[in-house]
């Protein structure tokens, strides 16, 4: 469990590094997109509620997990259509990564059936920070 949390912290630090890198490449970024911001916030909030249910049996929430993954995949596809949007796409890649990410959290929940309240709390904080980085990234883009 410690290794998973460390992987998640690594992903969070990478997110912060991306924001710092972006500051130096500001002119090459896509413009601010209210749809991206609002949908990312909605997904973050949906994920937060769902992750708090991970102390319950996965089978009770499997459809909701699939729904959240579908929302993420749709947002990812949308972000990939924009030019000069590589940093945002990379941030979504972190959300979807097979280790230390939201998707790995869902995989672990499915495998173990239930997760401890402590682990859920720790991972919820880490995943929320990844989403907050996405929101910060979008909000820092130039407004047209």
Q: Mind sketching the topology for me?
A:
Blueprint: H1 2-24, H2 34-51, H3 62-80, H4 86-96, H5 102-112, H6 117-139
Helix pairs in contact: 1-6, 2-3, 2-6, 3-4, 4-6
Oligomer classification: single chain
The count of helical stretches stands at: 6
Low-confidence stretches: none
Number of strands: 0
Radius of gyration: 15 Å
Sketch the topology as an H/E string, one letter per element. Answer: HHHHHH
From the N-terminal CA to the C-terminal CA, the straight-line distance is 44 Å
Fraction of residues in H or I helices: over 70%
Q: What's the shape?
A: elongated
Could you report the average pLDDT, rounded to the nearest whole number?
Answer: 88
Strand content: under 5%
Q: Structural class, judged by helices and strands?
A: mainly alpha
Largest sheet: none
Protein architecture, described:
With 144 residues, the protein is mainly α. It has 6 helices and no strands. It has helices at residues 2-24, 34-51, 62-80, 86-96, 102-112, 117-139. The relative contact order is 0.22. The mean pLDDT is 88.
